[in-house]
Structures are given as structure tokens and as C-alpha cells.
Amino acid sequence: MSTVYFPEVPEPIRYEGPDSKNPLAFRHYNPDEVVEGQSMKDLFRFAVAYWHTFRGTGSDPFGPGTAQRPWEDGTDSVEMDLKRVDVAFEFMQKLGAPFYCFHDRDVSGAGANLKETNARFDQVAAKLKEKQGETGINLLWGTANLFSHPRYMHGAATSPQAGVFAHAAAQVKKAIEVTQELGGENYVFWGGREGYFNLYNTDMQRELDHLARFMHMAADYADEIGFKGQFLFEPKPKEPTKHQYDFDVAACMNFLRINGLQDRVKMNIEANHATLAGHSMMHELEYARIQNALGSVDANTGDALLGWDTDQFPTDYYLTTQCMLVILEYGGLAPGGLNFDAKVRRESFEPIDLFHAHIGGMDAFAKGAKVAAAIRKDGVLNDFVKERYASYDDGLGAKIEAGEATFADCEAWVTEHGEPTIASGRQELLENIVNRYI
Ligand code: XLS
Ligand code: NI
Ligand code: NI
């Protein structure tokens, strides 16, 4: 393994167990350890987000980047794109992440026109493919950046200008091709600027129709070239626009259903987006799970005191336990995975901070998985829930569920039985029980 860009991490990160005080070791993530029949490696399918980890500069609206990245030469060149691929793979190999994710423009910059841009992308993709072969690290998903370039200021597929739609389509066409070439297992649509600031200037119906057309065209193109990856739709309620069309899982599922896309597209659910929508991450995951639409996870967290997408690394055991309760119930995420769509703080500007951040996130999910598996093994929550709904298992309840009961039957039941017996919800007890496992 080459040590060129991260000399402060001479060895791959290893599992040393919960008592380790080594900041460059895993305390819970043990790739070969089995949880509910799957190795942790296969259960989590951890991915590194190319944009935050290798393109993030630490800039914020009040100041420029702070990140020290000694390998960056400051040029927007294919040489720098290619060198950065080496940096990325050294990092991911040392971390032991089996996957990565990218937007087209994270890995390769733009040229003077579409043709030049795509040629540069091809050059970088060839190098990515070579490094994937060398290291065994694979592409979890690819996507296209349809929000940074000024032409996308009004949106991409939902721009009022058809030429912008065309540009976006051409970009996604290429991004799907490269994702296929690299064996990517999924392709993500996140809204970017697909939304609006003011309805005075917006034809919402047309914009939504255009977004649906765009996704159908992508699916058709995937069929045409034989791309077998799973399509994913990533909900986010706001930011950059005031109202994003992919607001939350419920809004996305509704959009997919009315547009006949529900069999083609699953959800890529991000924790910070869930909280921005006023939901818990567990709610969003569960809502997708019960509809068999849980595709993949963007693992991060927001800050309870800040109302924007801070994209912090997840370290909270309650959050990861709640995620893993749902993910284990779903049987894992494959072909999706857990992508750290998260960035180090502006104040954490050294390369080594990238390791601390990912190690912490991976450990938090491993710990959450162990806790969730123990809770599930003892059946404490499941048994309670089952019992809570037992009145629907036979008699009138079973008839209601089977669609065999009428209002008149209900009236007759009340006449015969009078007041029903109500049981306590025991929320506090259940929270205490979960604390026992944490
Ligand atoms: C932004 C999104 C973005 C998507 C990929 O908030 O999370 O990073 O995951 O375009
Ligand atoms: Ni995301
Ligand atoms: Ni996000």
C-alpha cells in the first residue's frame, strides 16, 4: 500500500475492540464480524463521498476554505483530477471503505464545451477504473452535479428553459455511461435546484411534469445501454431552493407513483435532510421500508441548534441504533449502502481529521448495529408492538383488516361489548429499555 499523501497514517485502520484508545483504530467496526447473518462489511457497505472528502475546502458564507490539502496544486486541470484519484484511493484503502460515490464534476472538471468536458471525464474514469481494479474498492453510486454551474440557477430538469433541460440530460446521459463503465451499483437523482423560491414566477405543474419526463428518459436510456444499476431519488425539503420538489420520502413516493416510476426508483435517504423536513431519520427510513423502497442511505447528521444542512459525521448512538433497527428489519441495504455524505468541520482542517471523522462514523454505525441486533434478538420492542395490535389478530379486528367489516358491524360490536379495554403505550418504559442496550 502506497504512503504518499497520508504519511501520518502508515498502516490500514484496524479493529482493536471497544477498549482501544488508539484514535486510528476501530472500536466497533470489525468488517468480518457477523451481525444477523451478514458480515459488517456487507451489511453497511460504507462509502466515502468524493465531493466532501476530496473536494471540500471548508469554505462557508463568511470566509474561504481552511482545509490544508498538501497534494492540491491549485489548478483546475486533468493532471490534478488524476492526482486526486491517487489521493482518494490511498485514503479509502487505508480506511478500509469498500465503496465510494461521486458527482461527475467532483472527479473531473469541466472543459470548454460538452465534448471536451466528456473527454476529460473519460480520462479520469479510466484512472478510477484502474484504481478500482487495483484496490477492490467499488463505486456505490454515481450522479451528476446539476446545481453548481450558473446555467442551472433556475433548476435543471425543472428549468423554464428547455435548453437547460437538454444540457442536464446530456450530462446525466454521460454520468450514467461512466457509472456503468465503473460498475456502479446505483445511480442517484438528488434535486439540486429542482424546486422554487416563488410561485409568482413558477408553473409548478409543468416543472413537475418535466422532472418526471427527465427521469423516464434516464430510465429509457439505462435500458437502451443495459445499465442494471438501481435508480435512487434523494429527498430534501429545502436548500438550495426554498421548496424542493423532492421534499421527503412521502412526497417522493407520491411523485414516483403518479408518474409511473415506482418500480424503477428507490429512496436514498439522508439523515440531515430528514430532520430539515421535520422528521426523524427513523421515520423516513421506516416510511420507505414499509413500501419496499429503501434503497440507500446518506449517513450524516445535522445540528439540533442549526436549521441547515450541516452534513456532520454521525456519532450519536441513538441515531445509528434507530437507523439500524430499520435497516436490519429490511435485511440490509444492498445494492445500496451507507454513504458518508458528511464533511469535517471548517476548524478540522488537517488531512488526519478526515480519518477521525470516517472512523467515528463507521464505529457509530457498528455500535448501533450491535445494539439494534441485541434489542431485536430479545424481541423487546417487537413483542410489545405485536401485543399492542393484537386486537386486530382475530374477531372484529381481523375482519376490519380483511376488508370484511362494515360500519354496521362496528356498530353492532359496540352495542354488544361497550367500552373497549385500552392499554398503556409505555413509551417511557420502552425508552428506558433501549437505554439498557446502549
Ligand atoms: C445535498 C445532497 C447531495 C446528494 C448528491 O444536500 O445530499 O450531496 O447526496 O447529489
Ligand atoms: Ni446526500
Ligand atoms: Ni445533503
CA-CA gap between termini: 37 Å
Low-confidence stretches: none
Range of helix content: 40-55%
Q: Could you report the average pLDDT, rounded to the nearest whole number? A: 98
Task: Report the count of strand segments.
Answer: 14
User: Please, how many helices?
Assistant: 16
CATH class of the largest domain: Alpha Beta
The 3D shape can be described as globular
Proportion of beta-strand residues: 5-15%
The name CATH uses for the topology of the largest domain is: TIM Barrel
Question: SSE layout and pairings?
Answer:
Layout: E1 14-15, E2 25-26, E3 34-35, E4 38-39, H1 40-44, E5 46-49, H2 50-55, H3 78-95, E6 99-103, H4 104-107, H5 114-135, E7 138-143, H6 162-181, E8 186-190, E9 195-196, H7 204-225, E10 230-234, E11 243-244, H8 249-258, E12 265-270, H9 271-276, H10 281-289, E13 294-298, H11 317-330, E14 338-340, H12 351-378, H13 380-388, H14 395-401, H15 407-417, H16 427-437
Parallel strand pairs: 1-2, 5-6, 5-14, 6-7, 7-8, 8-10, 10-12, 12-13, 13-14
Antiparallel strand pairs: 3-4, 9-11
Helix pairs in contact: 3-5, 5-6, 6-7, 10-11, 11-12
